[in-house]
User: Fold this.
Amino acid sequence: MGTLIKNGNVVSAAGSMVADVLVEGELIARVGAGIDAGGHTVVDAAGMLVIPGGIDVHTHLDMPFGGTTSADDYEWGTRAAAIGGTTTVIDFALQTMGRPMTEAFKTWRAKSEGKACIDYGLHMAVTDLGPNDSWLDGVDAMVAEGISSFKIFMAYPNVLMVDDRTIYKLMERTKQLGALVCVHAENGTVIDAIVQEALAAGHTGPLYHALTRPTVAEAEAVHRVVALSELAGGANVYIVHVSCEDAMREVAGARERGLPVMGETCTQYLVLSIEDDMGKPGFEDAKYVFTPPLREKKNQAPLWGAVKDDVLQVVSTDHCPFRFKDQKTLGLESFTKIPNGGPGVENRMQLVYDRGVNMGRMSVERFVEVTAEAPAKIFGMYPKKGVVAAGSDADIVVWDPEAEYTIEAATQAMHTDYSIFEGFKVKGNVRQVFSRGELVVEGGKFTGVVGRGQYLRRGLGEVLAG
Ligand code: URP
Ligand code: ZN
Ligand code: ZN
Assistant:
């Protein structure tokens, strides 16, 4: 006996059709019209969208950062993701400088083991190529372990930042293997100089986190990393958290030139801004200190346009939550001590649907593409994940396009004492979530067993060319 999701509007990037979806065990057995109910459990999805479970390829769970650790561990973060309609996350294992990548892999597998509520993969954040670049062999070892994407930071000097030579050498290797380099693109050393100037002038409040990280510093880094990719023979590149028009134009230019460059933006850059959210009294705006920072509102329309027009392929969250009361306040004396990051994994689908589809900024098909299908393709999980089709994992969201919801910290599953989207009203929300055939969310509650999520051994991804 399986589960038959009947009469929903089944959406993929290619189109939508009213159909039934038969789930047997962990997989989708059939998608089509008029499937016989037989002895199956029937879910009436008339009037609903039936969409692939969301895939958030940018989260930081249980991550040591800024003198503390992100507030959601693998259990809490993945439960919140599921409640918001996301059935897969890709998190980051961070290589410790002076230690090989294999060690970071073991550490992050141990953090996640037995805790995840949905399936998850890992990127490897590379910080050190080791003596005579000998740890580059770790790249091959990681690909064999199902890690096909490698993150580098061009920001955070002395913590995570790598130099151009490291990027180039890493790209030579990923190019050979067909793996992907994900890039936090900001000019870390120049930003550091600007930060020191601000501090010397007595500017210590949260607003100065944003004002000391100009959009040009992001655009310059995108430009440079694209050049490094060319120098390495055309390595596949994915720019994470593109936050502004200047940086987005660099991605657009690279894609127009036919280079294997892709990118994402995050929900916060689409709906929040310096004008609306920074400069609040009482240290309130420390809640919005993440990197890259919030930008001027004029950047939002170009970013929405880039998502619609496939300049950017993905919307993720960069979910990196810190509590206000005892974590963000570490930076009361200086914005440089505020842990960088914000909560968002629970609200991505709601916000992209409401502010995107409902406001006419993208079609429902594009919504599915940027939240599930393209991430699955780029990160080597398609068609196991990212599509409602026979043979795929039964990661399915029954989405009620009429459901109205107000985002509030008081009712969220994420473990922060605030929401950066507090009071946002959305129309369109999760009704049920299935993860590998199991009903894991109903009535806004997680109904699965903690630890049921599986580590995903990902293959090499596709380049979604311009
Ligand atoms: O502020 C952020 N984004 N924190 C997480 C680390 C990163 O840069 O993605
Ligand atoms: Zn980053
Ligand atoms: Zn991040």
